[in-house]
Design a protein that fits this description.
The chain has eleven helices and 15 strands. It is of the alpha/beta class. The protein folds into three domains: 116 residues, 3-Layer(aba) Sandwich (Trna Endonuclease, Chain: A, domain 1), CATH 3.40.1350; 68 residues, Orthogonal Bundle (434 Repressor (Amino-terminal Domain)); 108 residues, no CATH class. A hairpin with a 2-residue loop joins β14 and β15. The chain starts with 6 loop residues before the first helix and ends with a helix. About 10% of the residues have low confidence.
């Protein structure tokens, strides 16, 4: 793990590694967004929040990240370097508000392709019964430092296992069982490639927007949506799951500055981008269609929205 990275360096490092793995990557260094990285490869989408200190993720931000991931069919995770109390280790899964948190190195293993990494990707992470582990250690008259020496696992990681602060890899479970000479009780098992199953969104958080299941976000877009049934194929646009992202009620200059970033985000999550503006100054801002509130009010289906966006692009 690279020591001393700030958030921007963390983002650059993660984006570079994802790019080398063949992902189509969008990253944003803006503060306060719902997610900082969106990356897609072979139909698999990840939304990633980058925080130097993973304890700075609050419950409201976690719920929004989960809800956006639910709408887009993505897997969400948090990457970071440390918590308030300790430095994160590679090959260790942490958890904040039900979302998997890990180092950039562990992220690379989680999302990586290839035969060897695919087997690792499919392995399971376990939550150990911390109290049983502590009693088992004490029954062998072992201190945490002695168990660390016998198992090759750090004292800090063993402490977190005993206090149910982190999940355990199959490799570390095997090392502990070998050192203790017996099996270890596990409370649950979760897929290594994600956190616990995404929770249902709070009532009212997901709403209908012209036939799309949608959610307002704090950035990098104002709204994201998905129509799982897709729109009917028309003018070269195929059916299937369809995503959209939009910004609304910004001044034209602000939208012009956001065009390039918005296009990269749309490509990464395979979405149809557009802006909602107060008045019809332009049909497009850059390459992105612009619709007024009055035009949106007349649209009643995903097919009609696609048609309107296509017409704006051709003008």
């Amino acid at each position: 793990m690279i020591q001393g990275m700030d958030r921007e360096a963390l983002l650059k490092t993660a984006a570079a590694r994802l790019g080398r793995l063949g992902f189509d990557v969008f990253s944003s260094s803006e503060i306060g967004g719902c997610f900082d990285i969106a990356c897609r490869k072979s139909g698999t989408l990840y939304l990633i929040k980058a925080l130097s200190n993973i304890d700075s993720l609050d419950s409201a931000s976690a719920r929004q990240l989960e809800t956006v991931s639910q709408v887009l069919g993505a897997t969400c995770l948090v990457i970071g370097e440390r918590s308030k109390s300790y430095v994160l280790e590679d090959d260790v899964a942490y958890e904040r508000h039900g979302i998997l948190a890990c180092t950039v190195g562990t992220m690379e293993s989680i999302v990586g392709g290839g035969q060897v990494l695919e087997r690792k990707f499919n392995r399971m992470m376990s939550r150990l019964d911390g109290e049983s582990l502590r009693k088992l250690r004490e029954s062998r008259d072992l201190s945490i430092s002695e168990l660390a020496r016998l198992s090759g696992i750090s004292e800090d990681t063993i402490y977190r296992y005993e206090h149910s602060l982190t999940l355990a890899t199959p490799r570390n479970i095997g090392l502990l069982e070998s050192a203790l000479g017996t099996g270890i009780e596990r409370l649950d098992v979760v897929p290594k490639h994600g956190a616990a199953p995404v929770k249902a969104a709070p009532p009212g958080m997901i709403f209908d927007f012209v036939g799309f299941s949608s959610v307002n976000t704090a950035g990098p877009a104002d709204l994201v949506g998905s129509n799982a049934r897709g729109a009917k194929a028309q003018k070269g646009i195929c059916g299937g799951k369809m995503n959209l992202v939009l910004e609304r009620d910004r001044d034209i200059r602000t939208l012009e500055k956001k065009c390039a970033q918005f296009e990269r985000l749309s490509e990464a999550i395979s979405a149809n981008p557009f802006f909602i503006v107060r008045r019809a100054a332009k049909s497009r801002i850059g390459a992105i269609p612009a619709l007024t509130h009055e035009e949106i009010a007349k649209i009643g289906s995903p097919e009609e929205l696609l048609r309107a966006l296509g017409e704006k692009r051709r003008r």
